[in-house]
Structures are given as C-alpha cells and as structure tokens.
Design a protein that fits this description.
- The model has no long low-confidence stretch (mean pLDDT 91).
- β8 and β9 (241-250) form a beta hairpin.
- The chain has a single domain (2-283), classed as Glycerol-3-phosphate (1)-acyltransferase, CATH 3.40.1130.
- It has 298 residues and is of the alpha/beta class.
- It has a seven-stranded mixed beta sheet. Strands 6-7 form a two-stranded antiparallel sheet.
- The N and C termini lie far apart (49 Å).
- The chain has eleven helices and nine strands.
- The protein is globular and about 55 Å long.
Length: 298
C-alpha cells in the first residue's frame, strides 16, 4: 500500500512538473547532466567500457566527446519523457516529423489487409514514438514493451503512453494476443536492441564489432502475420525535435531466409549508431550475456 501511494505521488509530482515550458525543463536538465555525469558518475564505467570496445579506432578525446554528448542527450530524454505527461497531440506532431514514405504506403497496405511491423532501437527519444504514431494512419497501432517492476507506476506510465491511440502490449502477453492481431491489419512496433535473457534461443551476430545475442521474436511475428517490415531510425534534428526515418525491409517476410530480417534490422541500427553514437542508450548493459555465446554458433 505504501509503495502504491509513493508511486501515485511520484506520478502526480512528475505530471505537475510537466506543465512547465520545455525551455524551463531543459534548463533544469543541465543541472541533472552535471549531477549524473560529473558528480554521481551514473553508470560511467558501463558507458566507458561500451564505447571503448565498440569504437577501438577512436582516440581518448573522441570517446570523451561522445560520452559527454551522450549524457547531455540522455538528460534531455529524461526531460522530454517527463514533458510527455502533458504534451498535446498537436505539440508532439510538431516536434516529431514522420518520413512520408511510410504514411504514403500505409493506405495501400491497409486496403490490402496487410499489417506493418516496425523495429527500432533505443536511439533518439523512443518514448515519443508511440505518442507520435498513434492516430497517424487508419491502422490500430500497438507497441511491445517491457513493463516496469513497480506495478502501480507502470500502469500510470502505460496510461500516458496509450493516450493518443497506440496501445502498449507487454512482451509477456504478445503470444496470447497473436490471434487478435491477425484479425485486422495493425501497426506494431518493437524495440530490438535489448539483452535477451534466453541467449540459447537467440540469433548471434556481430553488432558494433562485438558478439551479440539478438531477439528473434520480431522476425517470428513478421512471418506469422505476413506483415510488411520496416526499420525506424529516430533522427535528432535539434534539441526537442526529431524525424522518424523509415527503411523498407520486405513485404514478403516468409520469402526471407531464417534470421535474414533480424540481421538486416540489426545492421541498419548499427549504421544509425555509427553516424551519431551519442544518441544511443550506452548506459544499458547490452553485452552482459555475450560470454554465454554457444561455441557452435557464429
């Protein structure tokens, strides 16, 4: 009961803060950056290790430059996530442009009854994507996510993410909802750069120069739904403004080889990171299970 009360209190405090102008919140965010980077050193060991191993060709000065810019971007994501509690649909549409390629094709997919599956990474500000895509097409839109451990706070955050039409599906419930998703054409989004728990059933590939286990669930559902498959890059234009760029992978997933879709979207994400590495989430331990790679797989 106390935990629930704390969660609701935190939610309403954050929602109250979210009504402040973004310019004010960004000014506060600068002090958060100082706190996280210079004072607390939040996960700096993880960030340093990841950057050094992924970019061995870069000098110490170059790595430090990326690291500092990452922490600045990271604090802006925190601010923008808080702001999302009160952000209007008009404002989110203004701040997140959408590549017209997918929108133009969406009507024809809808008429043909074909679903669209979108895969992206923790790049740019992924928290704003469900808010932006909800209601942007004729499709019902869904996003697969990993629930927060605090159940009460998770419900409140989920309610906020749902409010413009995109419905959040916990990854643990996706299998049970598969038949329902097949009943009508939908847009469903996945984040594909998390660290799989069950590495023995994962696809292994080289990602940023490192042996990396990758979820195969996205490819499985693409084939099960016979969906059109797209990679989404959330390009950062400037502070608080983004563009969703889409790369078409296939309209015929069942004609693709095993793990081919998984390999393609992983390499596309890698290219995005190599262009602007500071916009990826370097604080998460993406390779914490890489030592468990089976010796008979490459």
């Amino acid at each position: 009961m106390i935990k629930k009360l704390v969660s609701y209190s935190l939610y309403f405090v954050l929602k109250g803060i979210s009504f402040l102008p973004l310019s004010v919140l960004y000014a506060f965010g600068f002090f958060v950056y100082i706190l996280l980077f210079h004072i607390l050193g939040y996960r700096r060991t993880t960030v340093n290790t990841n950057l050094s191993l992924c970019f061995p060709e870069k000098s110490s000065a170059e790595l430090t430059y990326i690291e500092k810019n990452f922490y600045k971007h990271f604090t802006q994501i925190i601010i923008e996530s808080i702001k999302s509690f009160s952000l209007s649909k008009t404002e989110i549409d203004k701040r997140v442009m959408v590549d017209p390629l997918l929108i133009e094709k969406a009507d024809s997919y809808y008429r043909n009854g074909q679903s669209i599956l979108i895969i992206m990474g923790h790049y740019g500000n992924w928290e704003w994507v469900p808010l932006r895509l909800g209601g942007s097409t004729k499709f019902d839109s869904f996003a697969v996510y990993t629930p927060l451990k605090n159940e009460a706070f998770n419900k409140l955050v989920k309610k906020n993410r749902d409010r413009f039409g995109t419905r959040m599906i916990p990854s643990s419930e996706l299998k049970t909802k598969e038949n329902a998703l097949k009943s009508a054409p939908t847009i469903i989004g996945f984040v594909g750069d998390q660290c799989p728990v069950h590495v023995e059933s994962s696809y292994w590939t080289k990602f940023l120069g490192r042996d990396t286990p990758v979820f195969k669930g996205f490819e499985k559902y693409a084939k099960s739904l016979n969906a059109s498959v797209w990679y989404c890059e959330m390009e950062k234009l400037k502070k608080g403004y983004y563009r969703l760029n889409f790369t078409h992978i296939t309209d015929t997933p069942n004609e693709m080889g095993e793990n081919e879709i998984t390999e393609i979207h992983t390499k596309l994400l890698e290219q995005s990171i190599q262009r602007r590495p500071e916009y990826w989430l370097w604080t998460h331990r993406r390779w914490k299970r890489s030592h468990l790679k089976p010796s008979d797989k490459t």
